[in-house]
């Protein structure tokens, strides 16, 4: 499991905990608890977005390296390098798409 996946999970848990705390605070009329819950919820969302941004960056790097391999493979007539590059390019694009 990647570090970004772990951070994303931690963010989701923090967001959920914040929602619960905010809901309880609202239900019992405790404004301070409600505000703390909303802050925790926002922090969780921010963690998730940071993890997704990190994965998108990794995907873009992977895509770029794949494009280079594909082009070099085509230029030197190396079908194996070209196919490897194309596969890496597609994998990078997939990683980016999964983390939008």
Summarize the structure in words.
With 100 residues, the protein is an all-alpha fold. It has one domain (3-98). Helix content is 91%, strand content 0%. It has helices spanning 3-28, 31-75, 79-98. The two termini are 19 Å apart.
List keywords for this structure.
100 residues; mainly alpha
Secondary structure layout:
Blueprint: H1 3-28, H2 31-75, H3 79-98
Helix pairs in contact: 1-2, 2-3
Tell me the number of structural domains. 1
Average pLDDT, rounded to a whole number, is 95
Largest sheet: none
Q: Which structural class is indicated by helix and strand composition?
A: mainly alpha
Question: What general form does the structure show?
Answer: rod-shaped
Oligomer: single chain
- Please provide the ordered H/E string of secondary-structure elements: HHH
Task: Provide the helix percentage.
Answer: over 70%
In short:
The protein is mostly helical. The protein has helices at residues 3-28, 31-75, 79-98.
